[in-house]
Amino acid sequence: MKKRIGLLYGGKSAEHEVSLSTAQAVTKALNFDKYEVYPVYITQEGEWRKGAALEGPAAGIEQLQLTLGASAPNDISGFLPAEQDGSLDVIIPLLHGPNGEDGTVQGMLEVMNLPYVGNGVLASSAGMDKVVMKQLFEIAGLKQTPYVYFIRRDWKNGQTGLVEKITAELSWPVFVKPANLGSSVGISKAENEEELIAAVEEALKFDRKIVVEQGVTAREIEIAVLGNDEPECSVAGEIKPLKAFYDYQAKYKDGNTAMIIPADLPDEVYGELVESAKKAFKILDCSGLVRADFFVTAEHEILINEVNTLPGFTPFSMFPLLWENTGLAYPALIERLIDLAMERYKEKQLLQVKMD
Q1: H/E run at residue 139
Q2: What residue ranges do the domains of the chain occupy?
Q3: What is the pLDDT of residues 256-312, one digit of tens each?
Q4: C-alpha closest to that of 50 among 64, 61, 62, 36
Q5: Which of 345, 353, 352, 354 is nearest to 106 (CA)?
Q6: CA distances for 238 relative to 79, 213, 278, 297, 315, angstroms
Q7: What fold does the segment set 146-214 form as a domain?
Q8: Which of 31, 132, 213, 340 has the fewest CB atoms within 10 Å around its CB?
């Protein structure tokens, strides 16, 4: 009997388009002889649209957006197959950014007692908030670049003081980021105070909390992590942007970047990266999958940049490419993630919920 897989994608987020690309790619990886695949699309306005089982991989993003029947907002019956004769076996959340990758949807799935692929509520929320993530990394003893963070109210009431603090504690260039967004959305590089102010104003369009990070001259190295209580790591990959930095356009629009897999690294450096990636995975209490991003300096100093608890599966995405080069093909990777989701779900069912 085929397993019923629910694909949840779209969402109220600036990363909506990335989610659609990921969903399309995942339909191409799923074995339709083994799975029944039910699409559940959330528009950028929050409207849920559910559809009957797909007959095969989505031919294009338009198919994932336009061919589903409309339903009322917040209609969670979208998680049920169209014929309504039973619930889905596992949900694959493909909602990047806020309202999907930040623990909100994961919490809903927990309340509904549905198995789902990927990280749980805590790991998702902590991994989304770059400030909380950095604070946990500090507890774990992971080295990282210096940073300053603040909220919109701080900037509104004390912009001059914050600019002075940033210029005193960090040196140019700096990178300004929304704390709760991914896929390089809203990120700017600043070389002086004027560019800093403009970068903060841009980032505040996407989040109330801002983090300003010290720029560093280093290689950008990424490792994919897979597992639950016993995580495994892929080979390392290197990102070489052909632009000033690896922004949203380079990642998802024009592919204007080079990915070198495996990265040319000494064995001892790779070993340290694996150890750090696993340490980050565990301090956030991750499960399923994570992509850990690092800076490696010319002196082989390792600095963790961030982890992504729902890395993309687009044609340009590093996560599936890392596992492909480690020996785990794309379809097998999806099956492994589904198995990990079921493993975690079954373990949770062992917990006692009634007092003796």
Answers
A1: helix 130-140
A2: 3-116, 146-214, 219-347
A3: 578 999 999 999 999 999 999 999 999 999 999 999 999 999 999 999 999 999 987
A4: 64
A5: 345
A6: 38, 20, 18, 13, 16
A7: Dna Ligase; domain 1 (3.30.1490)
A8: 31
What's at 151, amino acid-wise? I
pLDDT in tens, 127-161: 999 999 999 999 999 999 999 999 999 999 999 99
Q: Which residue, among 257, 262, 231, has the nearest Cα to 244 in the 3D structure?
A: 257
> What is the fold of 219-347?
D-amino Acid Aminotransferase; Chain A, domain 1 (3.30.470)
Q: Which of 220, 218, 219, 215 is nearest to 171 (CA)?
A: 215
Task: Classify the C-alpha dihedral 11-223-185-160 as positive or negative.
Answer: positive
Amino acid letter, 211: V
Residue with tokens 């970047």: 257
Instruction: Quickly count helices (H) and strands (E) in the chain.
Output: 11, 14
Count the alpha carbons within 13 Å of 29 in the hemisphere toward its beta carbon: 25
Comparing C-alpha atoms, which of 76, 178, 133 is closest to residue 306? 133
Judge contact between 50 and 71, C-beta under 8 A: yes
3-class secondary structure, 143: coil
DSSP state letter for 253: I
Answer positive or negative: Cα dihedral of 218, 223, 229, 230: negative
User: What CATH number matches the domain at 3-116, 3.20.20.60, 3.40.50.300, 3.40.50.170, 3.40.50.20?
Assistant: 3.40.50.20
Residue that the structure tokens 């528009």 belong to: 43
